[in-house]
Amino acid sequence: MPGRIFYVATEEEIKSGKATDIYFVRTKRILEAKGLSGVRVVAEVTPSKFPERWPWGVLCGVEEVAKLFEGLPVNIYSMPEGTVFFTRDYRGLRVPVLFIEGPYGEFCVYETPMLGLLCQATGVATKAARVKKAAGDCLVVSFGTRRMHPALAPTIDRAAFIGGLDAVSNIVGAEAVGQKPVGTMPHALIIVMGDQVAAWKAFDEVVEAEVPRVALVDTYYDEKIEAIMAAEALGERLFAVRLDTPGSRRGDFAEIIREVRWELDIRGYKHVKIFLSGGLDEYSIPKFKAAGAEAFGVGTSISNAPVVDFAMDIVEVEGRGPCAKRGKLGGKKQLWRCWDCMLDLVTPFGADKPSCPRCGREMEAMLKPLVKEGRIVAELPNPSEIRQYVLKQLEKVELEFPTS
User: Fold this and answer.
1) pLDDT at residue 248, rounded to an integer
2) 98-149, pLDDT tens digit by residue?
3) Where are the domains of the chain?
4) Distance CA 233, CA 243 (A)
5) Which CATH number is associated with domain 11-122+306-391?
6) Pairing status of strand 295-298 against strand 273-277
7) 167-168: strand order across its sheet
8) Contact of 65 with 118, CB cutoff 8 Å
9) CA proximity to 73, closest of 372, 313, 319
10) What pTM was computed for the model?
11) Rounded to whole angstroms, how far apart are CA atoms 330 and 212?
């Protein structure tokens, strides 16, 4: 790719349909040659089973999908961004998260980038939601952009924030969600200065006052010794101590947390919180929270979250009506939800509004207009609004872990 510093597709390449698989370009050429490029279809996007046996996902990437198709002669109905969704409805039918209708020859090349926008962001948002569900009221910060290509930092941190995390550490990631970046200090600062206390005091002297003082306390000595040193050095100004102990030295990490908490408390430093980072996920956070940790920096498990495997399939063709390949259900569909029961029901599009099979209450149509003839018609809420929508839904679902 001559003239390019980094191996990333440009916005123009994505928007023009160049960031696609070659067979869609060939399909477009064939349809044009045969006079079929204007044949209208309905194509729906559905998930297969979730990775790691997750019971639910958090849909993310919808705003980018809308912008991808903006200006094309298509209509799109979609779940709102941030919706908690399941792979199957009440009867076991596959759930559509969105559908596109329009001339297939006009939008076929966009299938690859559209799925990419949805699959990765949804995986990150879902993992973040699981982590936040496990952490409860504790502060959780996204630390994971260093594990992925830097071009993806806004995507990763936006999805992590939408999924429920409280803050992000990456500067451009924070810009993407309209927040200030949050972070502590690296071991490098302490090592370069040659002394923990000198580094903590330098941070306190130089960094603006509104930034919480969080001292990294595991560079050279035992964690509880350095925690006491930091508390004595900064006193009331110390907000938290951060433990980022490497796995080779960690031992029983929950026991280390209990020791640090005890030693701080008996010396009058109950205001100092314990902030953990390093190899955390929704499985480990509950036991560390129970031991006394009150804030978490979560990185790789979120930024490197497994993608949610969405697929797009034609389910209706103009003049032929419902049709679909094996394993998929033909026809344009609507998805209905009972918010009281968190129960979903798939029906043919245009069918009467159903009542909840479980409680009898009225159900809500979840596939709502997003794009009409190339014009974005849905309101696109900001990341903070989407995050609040997600957090409200998390109160209605359980954090299930596979038993085997």
Assistant:
1) 61
2) 999 999 999 999 999 999 999 999 999 999 999 999 999 999 999 999 999 9
3) 11-122+306-391, 134-303
4) 17
5) 3.20.140.10
6) parallel
7) 167-168, 139-142, 295-298, 273-277, 238-243, 213-216
8) yes
9) 372
10) 0.96
11) 56
